[in-house]
Every structure is written in structure tokens, then in C-alpha cells.
Amino acid sequence: MLTLETIQVRSGEGGRLIVRIPYSPDYVAKIKTVAGRRWHAQERHWTVPRGGGTLGKLQDLFPGQLIDCDPALGAVRTQDNGKPSSSVLAPVLVDLRVALQARHYSKRTEQAYGHWVARFLHFYQGRQPAEMAEPEINAFLTHLAVKEKVSASTQNQALAALLFLYRQVIGRNVGDLGEVIRARKPERLPVVMTREEVKVVLGNLTGEKWLIAAILYGAGLRLMECLRLRVQDIDFSRNEILVRDGKGAKDRITMLPESVKASLQDHLKKAKAVHQRDVTDGWGRVLMPNALDRKYPNAPRDWWWQWVFPQEHRWINLQTKEQGRHHLDESLVQKAVREAVVMAGLTKRATCHTFRHSFATHLLENGSDIRTVQELLGHRDVKTTMIYTHVLHRGPAGVRSPLDGM
Length: 406
Hints:
Layout: E1 6-11, E2 16-20, H1 25-31, E3 38-40, E4 45-49, H2 54-61, E5 66-69, H3 90-102, H4 107-123, H5 134-146, H6 152-170, H7 195-203, H8 207-219, H9 223-227, E6 234-235, E7 240-243, E8 252-255, H10 261-280, H11 292-295, E9 315-316, E10 323-324, H12 330-344, H13 352-365, H14 370-377, H15 382-386
Parallel strand pairs: 1-5
Antiparallel strand pairs: 1-2, 2-4, 3-4, 6-7, 7-8, 9-10
Helix pairs in contact: 3-4, 4-6, 5-6, 7-12, 8-13
């Protein structure tokens, strides 16, 4: 199935443009045809000379692709009929990004919504969103389900993005969307590992990858929730982990497993030493949530705001020359867990998220109350938590027969 990816073009320093492209051998081969291009491994983007028709060259190299171009770079080509090209997405995407950031949506939601709004505009060949309404939204969502055969969750995400665009950016309420052909939601049960399987997989991991996986299973965290933990979110005295701004922008408290406390404390000692070296070098600032650094300018260097799992290398801003550390990239953990699962000889498709499924299932098997598990997982609706009762080996209702207890 063909998917459209957004190519991002931003103004760089030294008369160059920053270009971010989705990874594929074909895309890499194309951008290598641009004279004077450079690959920056640390920032994971390309730069190309500004001027000389570079924007037009990019459009020629990637026909039909979505090019999110910085408005400061000026207009790019339009179609022959005078309408904005499908590549002229910057004004709408910038307005969307500002609205999402003002409401403190996550970076991932920002990227996902931007993708679907860009897809929507490309589908209608550059028509202005204010010119369109319910019929166009209905047709686009139906196309996703019927022609592209996307999943129900993917279609719902596209719908959420368009509803946000119209309600929060354009300022117009969207009415009846009842004509949409809905993607069929499959009846799937979560993949769950047995306790022995969890033990074997964890045994194939070492260092901080083991520690992260142990917390995923021992506390029921999502991977990004774990990687976004700050030092102050760990309460060793109360054996608690504070999960800030989890899925649905909800905070919650879950357990800190006693069995990881010593390893986590050792890990934090090493991380603190690295942070102190960064501060000595003149850096040590961390990205703050909700622009708190404006209110507390010294807070970004405070140890308590640092990531629990920082990256090994500092990033460098090519424009400001500022350096800092982001949290560990999730792909590194995902790769380590995949390899550990293969080494364990598991035939089931176990991932980082499987640790969370196993956490919930094993708590219920041990007799924990469904409401308690709901709170630990951060589910808004107990119906979401109820899915784990179907994978308990106690019959279809997830309960034990009273006869078995005699």
C-alpha cells in the first residue's frame, strides 16, 4: 500500500537548508543527486545549499510527496491552474502546530495530526480546508477504510486530527459524519507472556535496557512513559513512580518494584555524574514541559528535572551551538527487546508493550481488584482494563469457579 510521507524543509545557517526525509534507500539515492548536499549523522538530517532553485529541485525529486516548507523560505511552485500546490502546506501546518502546542499535546500527537492534515489536503489537491466541510471529510475517511484498508484505530486518528483542525484551528464545528464507512475493528486479544517467559526475556537483557524492561513489566508503564521519566518522578521512600502526562494527558501513580530499586539507584548515580560533567562544560539544560523554563530559567539545569534515561551523546543545535541531552531513543530499547525475545525462542509476537499486558494479566491472576489495575494502568474506562480478564486461564469470564477453590 502506498503511503505519503512528509518531507520537511527548514532554514539552516551558513546559507543552507535543513531537509528531513523519511528513511528509504530510494529517498537517500534521490537526495544524493543534489549538489553540495551533506548528511549530519548526529542530528539525523541533510543540509543542501540555499538558492539556485533548490526548492524546485526537491519538488522534482519527490513528485507527489508532501513538502512541509518553512514559510520564511517563501512560496514554492503552484499548480498550472493557479491553485496552491499540494506541497504548499506550511501555513496550515504551522497553525495546527501552534494550536496543539498551546493545548500541551504531545510531540507524537503533533506529528500524527500534522501527517493526517497533510494527507487530507493532498487528497484534495491543495484546496483550502476552510473551503471544505463534512462531505469532503466523509469522503476522505471512507477512502482510507475502503481503498487503503487502514485499521479502525488509524481511521479514528485521522478523524481526530481533522476534527481538531476544524474546531480548534479554523474555528468551525463539524456536523454530521454519519456517512463515513467505518474501518472494521478486529477482535484481538493482547499478547501476554507467562511469568517464566518474562524471566527468560529479561535474562537476555543487560544494563539500562534490562532496567527499562524490568520497569515496563514491574510497573506497567508504556515505553515512552518510562523513557520520559524525570529524576523527581521516582520516590524511593514510598516505592512509587509518578507518570506525568501519560496517554490522554493524565498523571498517575504506579508502583516502584522493590527488586529494581538498587539497580535504579546505581544507574542514577552514573547519570548524575554525566549531568554534572555537562554542567561543568557549560551545558546540562534539559527540555522542560509546558515552557516552564520561561518561568524558572535555572530549572533546566536542575538535577531533579533531568531524564532518568538520558542519551549517551549530547545533541548540538547547529544554529545556536547549544548542546544538551534528550532521553534515550525508543528504537534502541525496541531493538534490544526484539533480540531478547528471539534469543528466548518465543513464537509469540512479544514487544515492549507486551510487558505492560503481562503486568496487568499477572496482577489479575494474583487476585488484584480490576479497579486497582485500571488505576495503575491509567485507563480512563474500566472496559479497556476488562480485556485482560479474557486472557486469564480461568474460563471466558476471567473468574475462578468456586468448585476449584474447594
